[in-house]
From TrEMBL:
<feature type="compositionally biased region" description="Polar residues">
    <location>
        <begin position="1"/>
        <end position="26"/>
    </location>
</feature>
<feature type="transmembrane region" description="Helical">
    <location>
        <begin position="413"/>
        <end position="433"/>
    </location>
</feature>
<feature type="transmembrane region" description="Helical">
    <location>
        <begin position="181"/>
        <end position="200"/>
    </location>
</feature>
<feature type="compositionally biased region" description="Basic and acidic residues">
    <location>
        <begin position="68"/>
        <end position="77"/>
    </location>
</feature>
<dbReference type="InterPro" id="IPR036259">
    <property type="entry name" value="MFS_trans_sf"/>
</dbReference>
<feature type="transmembrane region" description="Helical">
    <location>
        <begin position="237"/>
        <end position="259"/>
    </location>
</feature>
<feature type="domain" description="Major facilitator superfamily (MFS) profile">
    <location>
        <begin position="146"/>
        <end position="615"/>
    </location>
</feature>
<feature type="compositionally biased region" description="Low complexity">
    <location>
        <begin position="47"/>
        <end position="64"/>
    </location>
</feature>
<feature type="transmembrane region" description="Helical">
    <location>
        <begin position="142"/>
        <end position="161"/>
    </location>
</feature>
<keyword id="KW-0325">Glycoprotein</keyword>
<dbReference type="InterPro" id="IPR011701">
    <property type="entry name" value="MFS"/>
</dbReference>
<dbReference type="GO" id="GO:0022857">
    <property type="term" value="F:transmembrane transporter activity"/>
</dbReference>
<feature type="transmembrane region" description="Helical">
    <location>
        <begin position="271"/>
        <end position="288"/>
    </location>
</feature>
<feature type="compositionally biased region" description="Basic and acidic residues">
    <location>
        <begin position="28"/>
        <end position="42"/>
    </location>
</feature>
<feature type="transmembrane region" description="Helical">
    <location>
        <begin position="547"/>
        <end position="567"/>
    </location>
</feature>
<dbReference type="GO" id="GO:0005886">
    <property type="term" value="C:plasma membrane"/>
</dbReference>
<keyword id="KW-0812">Transmembrane</keyword>
């Protein structure tokens, strides 16, 4: 019986991790050097099944951290970079090529296993060419079906966050509570949406996407029921908070699911569908909720959530297969070990980080980036303001139309239509923006600077203050309903351009740290959105309709300086950043800093995947 996978041999040499040509190893070395500084890498020895300690060799790390030359820094944008791979779960020695490669034999040589009379090798399991289990080889029709299922699930999540805004008065009257406590049914849900990803992102890297989708959506559906039948405000608030946490999983995993299925050159339109869905939900929530609450009362706002979320749970659980490559290959390796008795493994079996490292990377690193990296902090703050405007509208529209003009909930809901049209138009335009970036990147002699991602943001950032000023100064009760409603169109149209540009910029800046940077953004964004829900009422009461909206418009106008400032100075900021990638082409129009290896050597920075809490 072959020994079970439990660690790497201390005799492991970098040549034994070679996949194909020397050129491929060189490319892999450059990628890994961006996330590892060899002089700080420490690996605990692992007790193998043969009863002896097998520590990982530092020679492999030294090889992988090959110093970049000015010539090697002029390479094109690495198409193999995939932030959905388990960089935070696996050690820096893990061979990610296992998850990116198709081989005829379905395996590549792994590290050696010392034996009494020599040594043998583990076999790292891979996909085969045209492998039907590889999600990228599924038929286009089935991939589109899975895409729409997960995108609509995102729509349902954000719909559930906003549709309750249609009838806060009903909750206030039934439970005899004030408006702030009734609004907490929204803010508690939003806080849950921000906290959940801190747990579900790492769990999905270990257990796969399908299990997390199925279990969290089921719990979300279950906790909607007490909301619909609640007899006191405490039950409603607690269950909304738990439902928000559970509903956060689809929002966390959908982008990765699409990347699992679609090749890089195919992702434009599917990613546009995903980008629009989370913003369409908030627009349609008050629209549908308004008619439903007028006809059936506030409890039916939760029953409709139960119905649509239940349908999506059935579809995603029973019709969408596992898409996460490491999980699929791990199952295949277990099956092959059982059938053949040979040592088939995956990097999950060999190179899992210690629990303390994983907890640090998932729970601490996002906040390190948020509070020590000016790029992460300012762009997270900008997206928080954007998110806050969206949730401000859920409170401001009823104030302007119901209190100011005497409209019903259903009629007020109709005022969100221009916002929805703006979001939809933005989503449909997203592939054109992506095509523009690709054309610009191809013309660039080397790796395109991360700042090229900011072009859409610089063009669209003006739309939000314009829309807010229109909303502000047409909101007088004696003026037409059309003014404030039409102000929602430019705001909605700018959402996706700014949202996607921010995500792309953070990914290009932080490479293998990008997942932590995005997690920091989500956490701050949710906290800000929850707070906005509560202070909007007081702000409109004290400042009046016009100046309350204008205040937010002026803040968003000031934020327009952020993308322009980083377009000009972003490369210099990345040069001095401890975590940001600064490997752009030296001759670019935007100044480029030294390579990551040079930065690590000069500053003594720890490897990107190192133990946290050392700073």
């Amino acid at each position: 019986m072959a020994p079970q996978p439990s660690g790497r041999s201390s005799t492991e040499q970098p040549s034994e991790r070679t996949l194909g040509s020397t050129q491929e190893m060189d490319q892999s070395s450059e990628r890994d050097s961006d996330i590892a500084a060899p002089e700080k890498t420490h690996f605990a020895p692992v007790l193998g099944s043969l009863g002896h300690s097998r520590g990982r060799s530092h020679s492999c790390s030294s090889h992988l951290s090959r110093q970049k030359t000015s010539e090697s820094r002029k390479e094109s944008l690495d198409p193999d970079l995939d932030i959905n791979l388990p960089y935070r779960t696996l050690s820096n020695n893990a061979d990610m090529n296992e998850y990116r490669t198709e081989t005829t034999a379905g395996e590549i040589p792994g590290p050696p296993i010392p034996m009494g009379d020599g040594e043998t090798h583990y076999q790292l399991t891979t996909f085969k060419p045209n492998d039907p289990e590889n999600p990228k080889n599924w038929s286009k029709a089935f991939k589109w079906y899975c895409t729409m299922v997960v995108a609509v699930t995102c729509f349902v999540v954000t719909f559930a966050s906003s549709n309750v805004s249609a009838d806060m008065i009903g909750v206030m009257e039934e439970f005899n509570v004030n408006e702030q406590l009734a609004l907490a049914t929204m803010s508690f849900f939003v806080i849950g949406l921000g906290l959940g990803p801190m747990a579900f992102a790492p769990l999905s890297e270990i257990y796969g996407r399908r299990l997390i989708y199925a279990s969290t959506l089921l719990l979300a559906v279950i906790f909607i029921i007490p909301c619909a039948v609640a007899q006191n405000i405490q039950t409603l608030l607690v269950c909304r908070f738990i439902a928000g946490i559970m509903f956060s999983a689809p929002m966390t995993l959908v982008g990765g699911t699409l990347a699992d299925m679609w090749r890089l050159e195919e992702r434009g339109v599917p990613m546009s569908a995903f980008s629009a869905a989370p913003f369409m939900g908030p627009a349609f929530g008050p629209l549908i909720g308004g008619f439903l609450s007028d006809a059936k009362g506030w409890r039916w706002l939760y029953w409709i959530q139960l119905i649509v979320a239940g349908v999506m749970w059935i579809l995603i659980t029973f019709t969408v297969p596992e898409t996460y490559t490491p999980t699929i290959l791990a199952r295949r390796a277990r099956k092959l070990r059982k059938e053949t008795g040979e040592s088939y493994v995956t990097e999950h079996d060999l190179d899992m980080r210690p629990l303390s490292e994983r907890l640090g990377l998932f729970l601490v690193r996002p906040f390190q980036l948020l509070f020590t990296e000016v790029i992460v902090f300012l762009f997270s703050l900008y997206m928080s303001i954007l998110y806050g405007v969206l949730y401000m509208f859920f409170v401001a529209f009823p104030i302007v139309y119901q209190k100011g003009k005497g409209y019903s909930s259903s009629k007020t809901g109709l005022m969100f239509i221009p916002l929805a049209i703006g979001v939809l138009a933005s989503g449909l335009s997203a592939p054109l923006v992506n095509k523009h970036y690709v054309s610009v990147a191809r013309k660039h002699p080397g790796r395109p600077p991360a700042e090229f991602r900011l072009y859409p943001m610089m063009a669209s950032c003006w739309l939000m203050p314009v829309g807010l000023f229109i909303f502000a100064w047409t909101s007088y009760p004696h003026l037409s309903w059309a003014g404030p409603a039409l102000g929602g169109f430019p705001v909605g149209f700018g959402f996706i351009f700014m949202y996607n540009a921010t995500n792309n910029y953070l990914v290009d800046c932080y490479q293998h740290q990008a997942a932590s940077a995005l997690a920091a953004k989500v956490c701050l964004r949710a906290s800000f959105g929850a707070g906005v829900i509560h202070f909007t009422v007081q702000m409109y009461a004290r400042l009046g309709y016009q100046w309350a909206s204008s205040l937010v418009a002026f803040i968003s106008l000031a934020c327009c300086a952020i993308p322009f400032a980083f377009f000009k100075y972003g490369a210099r900021i990345r040069e001095w950043s401890k975590y940001a990638y600064a490997g752009d082409d030296e001759d670019d129009v935007v100044d480029s800093g030294p390579s990551d290896m040079e930065k690590n050597s000069a500053k003594g920075a720890e490897p990107a995947g190192g133990v946290l809490g050392a700073h």
